[in-house]
Amino acid sequence: MAIQWNLADLFEAVSDAVPERTALICGDYRSTFAALDERATRLANHLASQGIGRGDHIGLYVYNGPEYVEGTFAAYKLGAVPINVNYRYVEGELAYLFDNADLKGLVFGREFAPRIANIVKDAPKLKVFVAVNDGTDEDISVIGATEYEAALAAASAVRAFEPRSEEDLYILYTGGTTGMPKGVMWTQRDFFLSTIGPLLSLGQAAPDEPAEFVTRAIENGGTSVSMPIAPLMHGAALWAALMAIFGGNTVVLTSQRKLDPHEIWRTVEREKVMSVSLVGDAMARPLIEALDEAGAEYDLSSLFVIGSGGAILSPAVKAKIVERFPNMLVIDSLGASETGYQGTVAGTDGQGRPRFAMGA
After folding, report:
1. Where is 239: in which H helix or E strand?
2. How far apart are the first and last CA of the chain?
3. 130-181, pLDDT tens digit by residue?
4. Most buried residue among 20, 117, 158, 316 by CB atoms closer than 10 A?
5. Are strands 225-228 and 183-187 parallel, antiparallel or unpaired?
6. Separation between Cα atoms, residue 302 and residue 320, nearest integer Å
7. In this structure, are 176 and 211 located in the same domain?
């Protein structure tokens, strides 16, 4: 069957082409492409057995970890739509999002069970719950949830899904900085070709056909280790993770609940991370400042790219990055959830200000 501009099609094609490459690292956890695909397939089959199907919306209410990535691809395999849920939301915001997003299923961290129980009555369509073990002992029976690993163990690993389409949806809920969160809707074709594709094609012409991306993943992938630092519930981090996976490369995640600069640098050193993606000054500044602290000695020789998107990377902070890493490639992206990437800094105007090359 021909590959479409469909995120599940592309993921499965890459996984079949490079099954033994490392796809995902999170702490001591390591997963090959084959294992990641199998677990996503099992989750998809469990959700299907509970009545989740094409066009249904599945919330992902978990911290960074394998389950977020597995849940994303499980939804796409079904022709369903994963919905990012901000784990910092209070009950009122969650109730609004669950209703506005028409959630039918929810993959959630166990610690959030009491919060969900308090608002589930306000989300009448939400019927299917899968609880990820996060070390807490919250009661998940009150909402009829199935434990995540038990669900996967009992489900089939066979891909037997309905045909999918390039018109299947990708939806990203914004942070709601000017009001309540809003869902940005893309077709998967438009999303891939406006966000993932352009960055995978930097320095070369973008392929005309989906199969060409898979060929590039086979030929050029397996050489890069990328680390998105922000929570995957934000587009900046998820897009970076997807770009690595669709390129046949490795994604490194940390399960930290808040930014710990020293843990980030320890992970870069341990996993020989080559590119880090972050969100503007709020992340870049403490990371650079941590390197100036007494005793902060890390082997960061593997790192050669720092990318920023989703917020301002100021000239002052950018200068600190370059001062610390003189040979670093700093990618400063311009875009939005509604538009995808619109450009990257190609140089300066001679006074240190970014100069963008826009359009064709």
Report:
1. helix 235-246
2. 33
3. 999 999 999 999 999 999 999 999 999 999 999 999 999 999 998 756 778 8
4. 117
5. unpaired
6. 19
7. no
Quote the CA–CA distance of 150 and 49 in Å, as a whole number. Answer: 14
Overall domain count for the chain: 2
Residue 136: CA atoms inside 13 Å, Cβ hemisphere, count?
A: 13
Tell me the DSSP string of 16-50.
HHSTTSEEEEETTEEEEHHHHHHHHHHHHHHHHHT
pLDDT for 98-129, tens place per residue? 999 999 999 999 999 999 999 999 899 999 99
CATH of the domain at 217: 3.40.50.980
- The CA dihedral of 150, 153, 158, 161, to the nearest 10 degrees, is 0
Those residues whose C-beta lies under 8 Å from the C-beta of residue 177, and which sit 6 or more positions away, are none
**Nearest in space to 128 (alpha carbons), one of 67, 41, 59:** 59
Rounded Cα gap, residues 117 and 262, in angstroms:
36
| Distance from chain centroid for Cα 287 | 21
